[in-house]
Specification:
CATH class of the largest domain: Alpha Beta
Strand order of the largest sheet: 1-2-3-4-5
Structural class: alpha+beta
GO molecular function, one term: acyltransferase activity, transferring groups other than amino-acyl groups
Strand content: 15-25%
Number of helices: 6
Protein name: GNAT family N-acetyltransferase
CATH architecture of the largest domain: 3-Layer(aba) Sandwich
Mean pLDDT: 84
Largest sheet: 5 strands, mixed
Distance between the termini: 61 Å
CATH superfamily of the largest domain: Gcn5-related N-acetyltransferase (GNAT)
CATH topology of the largest domain: Aminopeptidase
Pfam families: Acetyltransf_1 (PF00583)
Low-confidence stretches: none
Keywords: Acyltransferase, Transferase
Number of domains: 2
Number of strands: 5
Organism: Nocardioides jejuensis
Length: 192
């Protein structure tokens, strides 16, 4: 299999449609159709930001790979900076041709430009090929990120809602919290 000649460049405003197709091709990125419509505004924000960057791999004017890069603190309570790689994706037709490696090279170069100490890749837990590729490059698991809808998590937590930070005074609860707690209690008693 020959390596296709590709170029890595920064995203441009008119790349939104191509990125939408690439990032949503296998439905792993965002289960919501609304996210596809957010790509143009995301690109505008990235183009105006010093801390965010999207790099794309292009073959014959076609976007075949992309990665969203973000500069930020490596972790809370430290001054160390890192470049976080989100949404690393290569079109299936162009995999195993050096495209992902080229995108990673762009991320490392950007990290070096900013003098950051680490590069962090954020991938889906079920992205087996991506995780294997990153492991071959020397990235190792450092954390587990778990996600849940707020409503689903609230349903699993106690009915008594603590006062919001900076919210009601001790001993007082806001009306919304009381209403929600009463509704949950009613639902639970009806389902039993």
């Amino acid at each position: 299999m020959s390596r296709a000649p590709f170029q890595i460049r920064a995203v441009e405003a008119d790349d939104a449609a191509s990125l939408g197709v690439l990032w949503h091709a296998d439905n792993r990125v965002g289960q919501h159709e609304a996210l596809r419509h957010d790509i143009p505004s995301t690109i505008r924000k990235v183009l105006a930001s010093m801390h965010d960057r999207i790099v794309v791999a292009v073959v014959d004017e076609r976007i075949v790979g992309a990665a969203y890069l973000r500069l930020g603190p490596l972790m809370p309570l430290t001054s160390d900076q890192a470049v976080f790689i989100h949404l690393l994706k290569v079109d299936e037709e162009f995999r195993r041709r050096g495209v992902a490696r080229g995108l990673m090279e762009a991320a490392v170069s950007w990290a070096e430009e900013h003098g950051t100490t680490h590069v962090v890749s954020v991938t889906g837990g079920n992205s087996r090929d991506t995780n294997r590729f990153l492991a071959r490059l020397g990235l190792s698991p450092a954390a587990t990120i778990r996600v849940a809808p707020t409503a689903a998590l609230r349903a699993k937590l106690p009915v008594e809602v603590p006062a919001r930070i900076g919210g009601a005074a001790p001993g007082q609860r806001n009306n919304l919290g009381q209403v929600l707690a009463a509704r949950r209690a009613t639902r639970r008693s009806q389902s039993v």
